[in-house]
Request: fold
Amino acid sequence: MTFNQLLLIFGLGLVAGLLFFGADIVRAWENRPSSAYTKEQRAEFEERTRVWQEEFEARNPDGPPISEDEHHAFEKWLKEQVRPALRLTPQASSNAQADGTRLGGPVALAKGQAWPVSKGGVPMEFLAQLDFAELPPLKGFPGEGVLQFFIPQDDDLWGADFDNPTQSDVAVLNRPNGGGGNASVHTAGSC
Reply:
């Protein structure tokens, strides 16, 4: 039997199957559920969407773009927000000391300093530290000391509270250079 003959037999079988089962396939297709959601769930979603749309439109009425005066006022305000900054570039290092600027790694806390815990009572994760003694001078910042940054492990937003930033669950510890020794080196897993 040739390939063309096999193809013809397959095609005829497919047509026969569609003729025999076609009506059942069409009925099943027409009676299938149109959504995985119930009517109540769809209605609730549509109502939430309608309320959100109304609230958005009330807060954002149609109108002309901002005026020249508003543009200049915003530009002035934006320039007033400029703060001194440094660009930090992580460097590979296998020799982490108590002091020094780095992302992650072992942490030397100040003598008597307890490992910070989140509002949920879980030991926080060490994120980074800045050693001002090794950074270029930055106006308004100290010339020495180590700032250590910790974030919670039990929070999907790493402690950020966008509605009330002053209530964010983060820890920033400050200690003098040389104030942490090997005896006080910890990791979150050892708490």
